[in-house]
Amino acid sequence: MSGMRAQLAALVAATTSVVLLAFLVPLGLLLRSEAEKAAISAATLRAQSLAALVALNPDGAAAELTASTPDGQLVSVFLPDGRVLGAEVPRTPSVSLAMRGRAFTAEAEGGVEVLVPVHGLPDGTAVVRVYVPEPVLRRGVARTWAVLAVLGLALFGFGLVLADRMGRRLVGSVSALARTADRLARSDLAARVEAGGARELRRVGEELNRLAARIAELLAAEREEVADLAHRLRTPVTALRLDVESLRDADDRARLAADVDALGRAVDEVIRTARRPVREGLRAEADLAEVAAQRVAFWTALAEETGRPLTARLPATAVPVRAARDDLVAALDALLDNVFTHTPDSVPARVEVEAREGGGGILRVDDAGPGFTVPPPARRGVSVASTGLGLDIARRTAEAAGGRMTLSNGPLGGARVELEFGPPTAG
Question: How far, in Å, CA of 205 to CA of 193, rounded?
Fold first, then answer.
């Protein structure tokens, strides 16, 4: 059961319990009191009947008396001459008081006694005493309380079932909103909320759908602007490249061609960066080990063709990091491209992935080339042979994932580029 359903069920359970206790407890006490009154009324009626019989014929009334009546009552008749007819019980102060001519009901040990005086006898006043024991006073109360308890449990269970169904509908509507928001966060702009649930939730769903439509419109406009930017930037770069190729001086042509190529790569990176929000969404996540294995396999073909030893040290389990897969691919390709471009073909290279303690992962690219010619802290993000663009791509990818880039000379004797990536965002 979800948290919201559990809270709603707990609220209904508490409310139902209070209502049932406030209703059933007084009702149970009232029924017990009515049972006592009914038993005492029956005893009073019996005492009055016997009193009339004793007034007519005291000796004849003895035949009507037994030590114990069928309903558990004990009946005794105290005659003026001291004799006791019926149940042999001691004469109590209540009997003496009743002989003065007053009928009443009094509590006795283990029950209640009903006393009715009989006037007009030759020797004085007799008293009819009917004793009602506690079990007779409470007869049927336990069964009534059991019925009330079963009724209360049934109402309590019905309330919980009803609350659970209401909570399921409410949670279902809220979960639908959350799923739609999550799909939108993952760049599924076709996600929409179906109308349903309470009026307030339907209103939220309508606003979320309207927001999704607006986001789609803005992203479509952004794509068009990026495409237009790409066209406007690449056209002059292409024209510039053609002008460079027409130069007669070979050295100038090579130098300017390298600069134009660098400018083209920079333009591509600007366009790729502009498109990144469309691609990643808000909760980027990828398996660093899987991406490294796939890219090493891709670059292995070129490495074998050029005679370059390319190895990999990858964990057997997944290493999830907070970065989009396309960004990891671009970063690793940029680093390997630097190695292949700026070191001799026979120089070994190695790609290593390590899971970071606490989540995230570390990507290392080592080579056996000349390494960095300046201390990394003094030239962070820039290396020899104009590799700054590739390192800048890798650096920004690591920093966007909550990590960093470190440059050093590695164990193979050449450069080492280490990228740290944070763990995926929860939720």
Answer: 6
CB 61 within 8 A of CB 93: no
Residue 148 Cα distances to 12, 17, 154, 159, angstroms:
20, 13, 10, 16
- Quote the CA–CA distance of 210 and 219 in Å, as a whole number: 14
- 381 φ, ψ to 5°? 85, 0
Q: What domains can be seen in the chain, in order of their start residue?
A: 3-141 (3.30.450), 186-282 (1.10.287), 286-421 (3.30.565.10)
User: What tokens appear for 154 in the block?
Assistant: 């049934």
Q: Is there a contact between 386 and 374 (Cβ–Cβ < 8 Å)? A: no
Partner residues linked to 133 by β-bridges: 111
DSSP character at residue 68: S
Report field, pTM of the whole predicted structure over 0.70: no
The proportion of the chain whose per-residue pLDDT surpasses 90, expressed as a percent, equals 18
* Helical residues (DSSP H) of 196-249, grouped into ranges: 199-245
* Distance between CA atoms of residues 346 and 340, nearest Å: 10
Instruction: Report the pLDDT averaged over residues 87-92.
Output: 81
DSSP 8-state symbol, 319: -
Give how far the C-alpha of residue 182 lies from the chain's centroid of Cα atoms, to the nearest Å: 16
At 6, is the secondary structure helix, strand, or coil?
helix
Q: How far apart are CA 368 and CA 386, in angstroms?
A: 18
Q: Which residue type occupies 405? A: M
3-state secondary structure 341-377: HHCCCCCCEEEEEEECCCCCEEEEEEECCCCCCCCHH
| Dihedral over Cα of 411, 374, 306, 299: its sign | positive
What is the pLDDT at residue 63?
Answer: 58
Pick from 299, 376, 2, 381: nearest CA to 175: 2
Q: Which two tokens stand for residue 346?
A: 């026979």
CA dist., res. 369 & res. 111, Å (int)? 108
Q: Are strands 286-287 and 361-367 parallel, antiparallel or unpaired?
A: unpaired
Q: Please, what sign has the CA dihedral across residues 44, 47, 51, 53?
A: positive
Give the tokens for residue 88: 């042999």
Question: What amino acid is encoded at 384 in this protein?
Answer: V
Give 323-374 pLDDT, tens digit per residue.
888 889 989 998 998 899 888 988 999 999 999 888 899 999 999 988 876 5
User: Which single residue is written with the structure tokens 């495409």?
Assistant: 227
Q: Dump pLDDT digits (tens) for 287-318.
A: 999 999 999 999 999 999 989 999 999 999 99
Say if CB 351 and CB 296 are below 8 A apart. yes
* C-alpha radius of gyration, the chain, whole number: 49
